[in-house]
């Protein structure tokens, strides 16, 4: 039974992986086209709107998206799931409307007092983007929770492709300000993706009458979610400090270059996107069914740790090739990529080691983790960004995410101990860290090839007991594909 569940998890992961690879392909083609058409200043300006929208999503969301994930399997009744989704989605939208009114009033008061404030157009775009991102977030979450892995992959591709198509079409055929085009394309692609998500899962998105039988313990939902809102807000600040610091100490053009490197990393975060989409729902469901069985968490951790370390080393090795795609104005991104890779690596691996925080409902721990990591990132950005510019911000972010992983793992093991054999992950991380430091200051060379091989060998030796299973599973996948082809 355990082996069957393990194969089911890996099948979902493989399905998402194929879809996300296609997403990667669309991004690899589209991102360089956009960076060659759009000035880094406009790219940087849009990046800052994205930062503010992300903060708006987290503040208005009240952490209810994570409450939806945690309580979704509490009852199998579809009316319960509908009512849960309705509550978790309606409250953030009402808060967003209130935030829009407050910002509009504050903007008019500031203008009357002679202070510069965000323009009305930018304010409208900001609020629309918050709404679009909220709806899209819940739409994708429902797909994950219902294990609609194929549609999850399809929607990712649809969103990315629609964003690229609309952007390129308007940049090439009109004289509209490029920042405005980027903003409208982002909002349109998110609304379009949500429309597809809602149609596919329409039985869950169908409104539930107020008089329906299933009842929700709303106080329990809010008690669980509100600490996550604060930790999420701090996490967003943590994730945004690099761009805020670059915007303060450097220029909007530098923000644009940094954002292009981040977007490139987002495109290449195939494993992170695929794994995170299915891990936590699977882990929560496994805990509800077999709370004492910890083998599932150990195997998931070993599998993703080895994959992420080797993948990260490959990105550092080929960083100069990736940056060539962006264009001459974005050349400095090659110095930023090596440490930015620690964000998807440490976050994804910590999703497995932090399972205890979620299943034990210790959401307040997330607040402590986010707060300490954010403080370290703030200190690092304050010290390094004035000295090294965007490269200093990337180094600070990478180191902060290593601390983030360590704190998350430690606190999770206090409430739900799982022996992850962390020494082997530590050895692989140290090897990758040395490689990233060297790669940040040097271009491609035979030395980098040797360092890549060293990181790969250390990682494979550390997780050698899982290699036979990976090979067997790989053969099964190949055989299935060959049978379908025949």
How would you portray this structure in words?
The protein is mostly helical. Helix content is 84%, strand content 0%. The protein has helices spanning 2-37, 40-61, 64-71, 78-112, 120-145, 149-173, 178-200, 202-205, 218-249, 252-268, 270-289, 295-317, 319-324, 337-340, 342-353, 355-359, 363-388, 390-415, 422-441, 446-462, 467-485. The longest helix is centred in the first third of the chain and has 36 residues, at 2-37. The chain starts with a helix and ends with a helix.
Give a concise summary.
This protein is an all-alpha fold and 486 residues long.
Task: Based on the model shown, name its key terms.
mainly alpha; 21 helices; single chain; disordered N terminus; 0% strand
Element order: H for helix, E for strand: HHHHHHHHHHHHHHHHHHHHH
Oligomer: single chain
Mean residue pLDDT: 80
Q: What is the number of independent domains?
A: 2
Number of helices: 21
- Beta fraction of the residues? under 5%
Structural class: mainly alpha
Rg computed from alpha carbons, rounded to a whole number of angstroms: 22 Å
Number of strands: 0
């Amino acid at each position: 039974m355990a082996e069957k569940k393990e194969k089911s998890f890996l099948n979902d992961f493989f399905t998402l992986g194929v879809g996300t690879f296609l997403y990667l392909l669309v991004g690899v083609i589209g991102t360089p086209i956009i960076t060659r058409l759009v000035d880094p200043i406009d790219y940087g300006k849009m990046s800052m709107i994205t930062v503010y929208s992300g903060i708006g999503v987290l503040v208005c969301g009240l952490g209810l998206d994570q409450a939806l994930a945690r309580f979704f399997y509490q009852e199998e009744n579809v009316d319960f799931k509908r009512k849960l989704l309705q509550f978790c989605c309606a409250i953030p939208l009402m808060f967003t409307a209130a935030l829009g009114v407050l910002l509009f009033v504050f903007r008019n008061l500031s203008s009357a007092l002679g202070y510069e404030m965000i323009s009305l157009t930018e304010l409208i775009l900001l609020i629309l983007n918050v709404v679009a991102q909220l709806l899209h977030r819940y739409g994708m979450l429902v797909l994950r929770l219902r294990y609609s892995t194929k549609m999850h992959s399809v929607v990712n591709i649809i969103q990315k492709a629609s964003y690229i198509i609309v952007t390129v079409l308007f940049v090439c055929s009109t004289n509209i300000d490029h920042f405005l085009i980027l903003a409208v394309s982002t909002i349109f692609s998110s609304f379009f993706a949500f429309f597809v998500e809602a149609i596919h899962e329409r039985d869950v998105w169908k409104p539930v009458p107020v008089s329906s039988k299933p009842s929700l313990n709303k106080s329990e939902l809010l008690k669980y979610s509100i600490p996550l809102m604060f930790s999420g807000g701090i996490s967003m600040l943590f994730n945004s400090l690099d761009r805020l610091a670059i915007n303060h100490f450097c220029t909007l053009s530098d923000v644009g270059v940094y954002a292009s490197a981040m977007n490139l990393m987002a495109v290449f975060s195939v494993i992170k996107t695929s794994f995170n989409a299915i891990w936590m729902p699977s882990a929560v469901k496994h805990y509800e069914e077999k709370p004492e069985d910890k083998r599932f968490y150990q195997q998931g951790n070993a599998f993703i740790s080895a994959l992420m370390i080797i993948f990260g080393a490959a990105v550092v090795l080929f960083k100069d090739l990736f940056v060539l795609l962006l264009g001459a104005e974005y050349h400095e991104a090659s110095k930023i990529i090596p440490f930015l890779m620690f964000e998807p690596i440490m976050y994804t691996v910590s999703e497995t080691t932090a399972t205890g925080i979620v299943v034990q409902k210790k959401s307040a721990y997330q607040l402590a983790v986010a707060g300490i990591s954010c403080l370290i990132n703030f200190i690092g950005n304050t010290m390094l960004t004035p000295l090294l510019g965007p490269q200093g911000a990337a180094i600070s972010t990478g180191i902060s995410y290593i601390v983030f992983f360590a704190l998350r793992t430690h606190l999770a093991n206090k409430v739900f101990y799982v022996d992850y054999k962390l020494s082997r992950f530590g050895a692989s991380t140290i090897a990758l860290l040395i490689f990233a430091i060297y790669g940040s200051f040097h271009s491609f060379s035979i030395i980098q090839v040797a360092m890549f091989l060293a990181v790969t060998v250390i990682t494979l030796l550390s997780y050698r007991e899982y290699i036979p299973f990976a090979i067997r599973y790989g053969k099964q996948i190949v055989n299935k594909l060959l049978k379908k082809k025949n």
